[in-house]
Design a protein that fits this description.
Structural class: alpha/beta
Strand order of the largest sheet: 4-3-2-5-6-9-7
Shape: elongated
Number of strands: 9
Radius of gyration: 21 Å
CATH architecture of the largest domain: 3-Layer(aba) Sandwich
CATH superfamily of the largest domain: Vaccinia Virus protein VP39
Number of domains: 2
Helix content: 25-40%
Low-confidence stretches: 1-19
Distance between the termini: 58 Å
Order of helices and strands: EHEHEHEEHEHHEEEHHHH
CATH topology of the largest domain: Rossmann fold
Largest sheet: 7 strands, mixed
Number of helices: 10
């Protein structure tokens, strides 16, 4: 196991129910911090700081760092460890239930980072996409499979609901792989770092974003069935016949643009 420099390990035992795997590889830590490029004055929020492996170097660049930690024991540990940073703020709670607008400071956009627990990474990303208009960038450590899904292209086996909605809101940039040995305890899967850059204006704008989300969800619940089958709850047979798309296609071959255009057509004739 790599010897930690930034991440001084404690007696805290990783808890499976929180999906805890603590980053201990200093080379990887330095790479992540370089990718984030934190600066003094940034409105930077870290999700799931754990034992503070990333927190300490982030604080060195951005003393106003705020963190969200669910584990009460770790929250107490972090509060004690970083008490000398007067502007450091810790919020003990569930990131899935956190209103990230509370972190807004004037016109400064949010910058969100985190080693996201594998067991909640997908719902957490969906939660954070709700705040995309208030975020300049997001850097996450995720299971490599999730990063592959975020960056997938139409027709890929990993292309799905997460892909479409993430790429609707953000430019997705996979950065680098993080091997299992970089963590304690060692996970059984590879991890990867991804950068999400929310669009100020999506390249393809949905007239009804909620309808787009419902449409994409419905289509990928039945990804092996045709659009005709997936859309029957969104339009009458007569309305379906007027849509400018081949209804014999499967959802997995549609681009983000296709989904947006389909959503906008359905929005014109709601049931």
């Amino acid at each position: 196991m790599p010897k930690p420099r930034h991440a001084d390990l404690t007696d805290h035992k990783a808890r499976k129910r929180f999906g805890q795997n603590f980053l201990v590889d200093d080379n990887i830590i330095d790479k992540i911090v370089a990718a984030i490029h934190p600066k003094d004055g940034d409105n930077l929020i870290e999700i799931g700081p754990g034992q503070g492996a990333l927190t300490r170097p982030l604080l060195e660049h951005c003393p106003q760092l705020q963190v969200v930690e669910l584990d009460r024991d770790l929250a107490a540990l972090l509060t004690d460890k970083f008490h000398s940073y007067a502007d450091f703020k810790l919020h003990q709670g569930d990131a899935l239930k956190t209103d990230f607008l509370q972190f807004k400071r004037g016109e400064a956009p949010l910058r969100i980072v985190g080693n996201l627990p594998y067991n909640i990474s997908t719902p957490l990303i969906f939660h954070l996409l709700n705040y995309a208009g208030n975020v300049s960038d997001m850097h996450f450590m995720l299971q490599k499979e999730v990063v592959d899904r975020l960056a997938a292209a139409p027709g890929d086996k990993t292309y799905g609901r997460l892909t479409v909605m993430a790429q609707y809101h953000c430019q997705v940039e996979p950065l680098f792989i993080v091997p299992p040995g970089s963590f304690h305890p060692t996970p059984k899967v590879q991890s990867a770092i991804v950068r999400l850059l929310p669009y100020k204006q999506p390249p393809y704008a949905a007239t009804d974003p909620k309808l787009l989300h419902k449409l994409v969800s419905a289509c990928f619940q039945q990804r092996r069935k045709t659009l005709r089958n997936s859309l029957k709850h969104f339009a009458t047979a007569e309305q379906l016949a007027t849509l400018e798309i081949d209804l014999s296609l499967r959802p997995e071959v549609l681009t983000v643009k296709d989904f947006v255009e389909l959503s906008n057509q359905l929005a014109m004739h709601p049931l």
